[in-house]
Amino acid sequence: MSLDTVREHSSARVAELEIWFGRVEPVPLTGGITNQNFAVEDRGRRYVVRVGSDIPVHGVVRANELAASRAAHLADLSPRVVHAEPGILVLDFIEGRTFTPEDVRNPANLERLIDMVRRCHRDIPQFLRGPGVMFWVFHVVRDYGHTLREGNSCHLAILGDLLARAARLEAAVGPIDVVFGHNDLLAANFIDDGTRLWLVDWEYAGFNSPLFDLGGLASNSEFSPEQAEQALSLYFRKPVDDRLRRRAAAMTAASLLRETMWSMVSELHSTLDFDYAAYTAENLRRFEAAYAAYQTMDRS
Q1: pTM of the model
Q2: What DSSP string describes 184-252?
Q3: CA distance 177 to 209
Q4: Region of residue 186 (phi > 0: left; psi between -120 and 50: alpha; otherwise: beta)
Q5: What residues have CB less than 8 Å from 228, skipping those under 6 apart?
Q6: Is 127 within 8 Å of 81 (Cβ atoms)?
Q7: Which residue, 41, 103, 118, 207, has fewest beta-carbon neighbours within 10 Å?
């Protein structure tokens, strides 16, 4: 089945949902690299419809995404879930501007971004229902290693070295505090409606170290060392000492390694129209830089 046929099938499925009051015409939304997303207008209200099944190779279980999305709405972080059925999630449409990495790096936005991350970590567990899912980046990386070997990935020549470095990073992170993490803090998952921020896309959400979200925020939007340190200081409400600085640097590198290997696995298994090979190369370059920065810090 061609990609165009898949899109047409998904659009038709969205249009036929029984929740609509009349005939609707789904409009594809750009930007997703895991799901197909559509905007739908029905009786003067707008909705986002996410189309996507479980993705076992990435640990994505839509029931967990649904539970996190509902809890995030109750915590006043995310739009309301309007409807859910297997492979479909319908949410209120947020009228606003999707953030870019430049927006995340803007000093005027940092305090409210960190406040949102802290509220995610602290408040969502008060509303979460069902099993408590753990997202541990180093387990994810190891599992990706198995998947890449089984799929005879073109990246096998460097896989052993990447996994060895992951083990060193895991040891450097050490014991953790456990919070409820978003675990995918790309700039595009923040929406500014002109009054407040919203945080969307909870498919990787689960309990984790706060350092992973802070590292992901910094790495995905390419913070300077000074910006990364300021984010840590704002989150923990204290100056950053050498121990925290090293642990955060290790987790930041790990977040980029996970994104790199996520893309390597997607090269093998994804059917979406996206240049995963280029995405792998870019994230591998950024991981190498982050790992070198961690090593420099670890030797100091």
Answers
A1: 0.93
A2: ---GGGEEE-SS-EEE---TT-EEE-HHHHHHHHHHHTT--HHHHHHHHHHHHTS---HHHHHHHHHHH
A3: 6
A4: beta
A5: 218, 248, 252
A6: no
A7: 41
Chain segment 39-80, per-residue pLDDT in tens: 999 999 999 999 999 999 999 999 999 999 999 999 999 999
* Residues 289, 151: Cα–Cα separation, whole Å: 27
What integer best gives the mean pLDDT of the chain?
Answer: 94
Alpha helices (runs of H) in the chain, residue ranges in sequence order: 3-15, 62-74, 101-105, 107-123, 137-150, 156-173, 210-220, 225-236, 242-269, 276-299
With a cut of 60, say whether residue 3 has pLDDT above it. no
Q: Which residues pair with 201 in a beta bridge?
A: none
* Cα distance between residue 48 and residue 45, in whole Å: 11
Q: Contact 80/73 with Cβ under 8 angstroms?
A: yes
Q: Can you give the pLDDT at residue 2?
A: 44
Pairing of strands 190-192, 197-199: antiparallel
Q: What is the DSSP letter of 110?
A: H
For 157-207, how does the pLDDT look when each residue is reduced to its tens digit (9 = 90+)?
999 999 999 999 999 999 999 999 999 999 999 999 999 999 999 999 999
Instruction: Supply angle C-alpha 150, 256, 187, rounded to 5.
Output: 120
Contact call for residues 176 and 211 (beta carbons, < 8 A): yes
28-64: string of b/e by CB count within 10 Å (b at 16+)?
ebeebbbbbbbbbeeeeeebbbbbbebbebbbbbbeb
Instruction: Please tell me the distance from the alpha carbon of residue 22 to that of residue 294, in angstroms, as a whole number.
Output: 56
Q: Which residues contact 249 (CB under 8 A, 6 or more apart)?
A: 290, 293, 294, 297, 298
- Amino acid identity, residue 36? Q
DSSP code, position 102 = H
